[in-house]
Amino acid sequence: MFSISRQLRREAKTVGFVPTMGALHEGHLTLVKEARAACDIVIVSIFVNPKQFNDDTDLEKYPRDLTADAALLAEYEVDYVFAPEQHEIYPEGFATYVEVEGLTESLEGASRPGHFRGVTTVVTILFNTIRPDRAFFGQKDAQQVAVVKRLTTDLGFETEIVVVPTVREQSGLAMSSRNSLLSDEEREKAVFIIEALREAKLAFKKGERNASDLTQIVRDRIDAEPLARLDYVAVVDRDSLQPVEKIGDDETLIAAAVYIGSTRLIDNVILNRKQ
Ligand code: AMP
After folding, report:
1. What is the DSSP code string of 151-169?
2. What is the largest CA-CA distance in the chain?
3. 170-203: per-residue pLDDT in tens?
4. How many whole angstroms from 28 Cα to the centroid of ligand 1?
5. How big is the CA angle at 6 (ends 48 and 30), to the nearest 5 degrees?
6. What is the pTM of this model?
């Protein structure tokens, strides 16, 4: 990968990069399409990064299907699939980590200690290896977007971070590799997550500005569903991720994490979205 990316730079090609953990779905493929449209060369990485899992069972049961993924990516005219072995990313004696402070302690960071340290470390290694002009990330992982933007600004990466809106199933459920772990019944119930968030967004559109009232709407809706258990719901500034009590004019997220059975799913909606 090092020598390929060196050669691409020599040829002055623009490189678009889509980092993934595989088990690809329409969400990932939308990122790929955006990259294809914007760059000369598209590189997709598939690496289930053990360092961003804080739970061994979660890592073990994470879906993997490299053969199906490679076939899909061929259809989308991806130039390179980078699917490294663990030891290639983390050589023996590996001891260097990258940590973004502040943005990583709340929400996903609170529920999954060490998660973002794993994400920012692997993103740094992948960016250093590939040196992309643009890297494409999904809005579904809103906190990841804020953290990766901070990382690239702070460490002076020349990579532009492009954010792609969340791709959903017809039901509204955000596409996720983890959806394949749901039973049919759980999949139906998982739609409640976006329905609850959309109900809160509707209340906002009708004039509700108190974050606590908006989160209560989500809480009530999720609590009413026996198969669902709310991990968190929060109203935060889109960039700083600081909690917002009274919503003003800035772009603001209502973000939630919900267990459906034993599968943990996340989703968010944006208030005051600026185009
Ligand atoms: P993952 O394989 O889950 O690590 O995701 C790889 C990239 O795809 C991340 O930037 C995710 O935010 C993005 N992604 C995952 N699901 C979706 C979705 N439903 N819509 C848009 N982007 C997504």
Report:
1. HHHHHT--PEEEEEPPPB-
2. 58
3. 999 999 999 999 999 999 999 999 999 999 999 9
4. 5
5. 45
6. 0.97
Question: Which atom of ligand 1 is closest in space to residue 175's alpha carbon?
Answer: 19
**Cβ-proximal residues to 64 (8 Å cutoff; 6+ apart), any chain:** 22, 23, 48
Taking the CA of residue 137 as reference, the ligand 1 atom at the shortest distance is: 10
For residue 208, the CA-to-ligand 1 centroid distance in Å is: 30
Q: Residue 24: CB within 6 Å of ligand 1?
A: no
Q: Is 20 in the pocket of ligand 1 (CB under 6 A)?
A: yes
Residue with tokens 């969340």: 166
User: What are the tens digits of pLDDT across the range 63-85?
Assistant: 999 999 999 999 999 999 999 99
Q: How far apart, in whole angstroms, are the C-alpha atoms of residue 209 and residue 252?
A: 11
What 3-state class would DSSP assign to 264?
strand
> Which atom of ligand 1 lies at the shortest distance from residue 168's CA?
19
Q: Is residue 273 packed enough to be buried (19+ CB in 10 Å), middle (13-18) or exposed (0-12)?
A: exposed
200-214 per-residue burial string, b: 16 or more CB within 10 A, e: under 16: bbebbeeeeeebeeb
Residues designated as active site: 28
